[in-house]
Structure formats: structure tokens, C-alpha cells
Amino acid sequence: MKFLQKIGYITLALLMILCIGNSVNAASTVSSSTIPETMMPYTEIEFISNDTYKILKGGISTETNTQKSLLERSSFQEANKLEAECQSNGTAATAIHEDYPTPQKGMTIIYGSDGLLTKILDKTGKEFIDNNSTLNSVNNNLNSRVAASKVKIASWGANNNRLYRKTMSNGTKKIIGYGRATTFNDKVGQRDHTLVKGDIATKMAYDNCKFGLEVKVKANKKGTSTKVSHNMKKCDVGGMPNAIVDIWKTGVSYWGYTYSSNLSLSGEVKIIHANQY
User: Fold this and answer.
1) Are 256 and 221 in contact (CB under 8 A)?
2) From CA 272, how far away is CA 130, in angstroms rounded?
3) What is the strand order of the sheet 269-274 is part of?
4) pLDDT tens digits for 34-53?
5) Residue 250: exposed, middle, or buried by beta-carbon count in 10 A (0-12, 13-18, 19+)?
6) What is the pLDDT of residues 233-249, one digit of tens each?
7) Three-state SS for 180?
């Protein structure tokens, strides 16, 4: 009997440990006045008040996020040089910087395959658009009119997404962006365009370039550090709180990926397109 009681106590203790370990997983509530930067891959949370969220799927990650580390140190050497020159000419200091919005009751946050924030939805389930950021871009983005040959326009998200304008040696102006690549699966883009492989979306607030414009996207081939470039077409825009580019579904196959909902490409990507808006 004592032996059976001992087994029972051990079983109970193990169950308690498991319950504690899962206390920050699905169905748990967590107090937070800010939107978490990282979670377990494919996590979804909903703010049930302005300072408390409920984990709908997935959970809190206690491990170091490899993708976050990759994005914090740029893999493009020219990006560091460009940033340094913008620091020197003062446009880095005056560029717009967009943080994540303050949580609101009913807001849903979705995390990608890399555990980083991918989408913010409002209480109606629609993509959250930060109107303050859009107004800042229209009214206060003085850098877009600066005559310097290298200009930092904006940065946003928690993972080093940034946009520049550079005057090339032949006098033409190019828009260059560095950051994270995410994916989307909408059926229709701008101008009622039916989205197809090769289409992308850019950030509405700062990079709503001409519809159909060719955008070169350079990213690592899946599982390697080999960078591959493909010419894509800008056919949509989005809130994109933490990405420099959104690739439509099967377009990720150019880099060796198979599309799945909320897929994020590994490592930092680069986009470049004409200065046409």
C-alpha cells in the first residue's frame, strides 16, 4: 500500500510540473502592456483587455530566436555602409521609425514559422493599419524630399526592417530595403488584380510604389547562405508590421520553399526597385 501511495504522489508531482510547464501555452492568459516580439512558431494570441492577452495557439518561447539574431546583424555588407552614411548625413536621425502599436482589446497577433510577429488583426479580424504611421509618412517624411544621394526613409518592426533611397552612379534613384520576408495568400491585390506566382506586396505606409513595378528580391536559398535574386511584381500593399516584403504564396518556391500559411523566409532579404510612386 505504501508503495502504491508513493507511486501516486510521484504521478501527482509530475502532473503538477507538467501543468506549470504548460501555464504559458494555449488557453493561458498573460499580463502585458506591449505586444510580444517573439513567441513559439505559428503562435496566435488575442488581447482580451488592453494589458492582458490569451494564447489561442502555440505558446511563449524560452529559447533564443535564431532568426531574430540573424536579422539584428545584417548579412548584406552594403547595408551597414549605407546606414553609416545616412548616420553621417543626418537622415538616419530624421527618418520615420514605427514601433508596434499599443495593444487594444480584441487585437489578434499572429507569429510566423520563425516565431517572429507577422500579422496584427483588429477586433473585426481585418489587418490592423496604424493610421498614425500613414499620417507620419504623408505629412512628416521630410527625408523623401532630401537632396542627399543616400537617404534613410523609414524603419519599422522589432527586427531591423529599413528603407532607403539611393542615387546611383548614372543619376537614377533607387529604393532599397533590407529586412524580413513574410508571405500572404490574398486572392485579389490592388486594382482588382488576381494575384499569381511572382507577385509581392510592399509596406503601404512607406513603400506604396507604382502598381506592377518590377521589384528585385534577394534572399537566401532555403537551408543555405547562398543568396538568389528574382524579379517580382508589386501588385499589393499591406500593413506589414515586421517585414520589408510580403511574397505571395507559391513565389517562395524561387528560394526552395513550399508555401504554408504564415511562412517566413530565413535570414535577411533585400529589395530594390525604381523610385516610382
Assistant:
1) yes
2) 24
3) 96-98, 150-156, 161-167, 173-179, 269-274, 214-220, 227-238, 199-203, 245-248, 181-184
4) 999 999 999 999 999 999 99
5) middle
6) 999 999 999 999 999 99
7) coil
Q: Where are the domains of the chain?
A: 3-274
DSSP for 63-94, please give it: S--HHHHHHHS-S-HHHHHHHHHHHHHTHHHH
Q: What backbone torsions phi and psi does residue 183 show, to the nearest 5 degrees?
A: -130, 160
Q: Residues near 184 by Cβ (< 8 Å), separated by ≥ 6?
A: 201, 236, 238, 246, 247, 248, 249
Q: Would you state the cell numbers that stand for residue 234, as one nine-digit string?
A: 508589386
Q: What is the grid cell recorded at 186?
A: 490574398
At position 179, the amino acid (one-letter code) is: G
**pTM for this one?**
0.87
Q: Which residue has the cell 533585400?
A: 270
DSSP state of 20: H
The residue type at 228? V
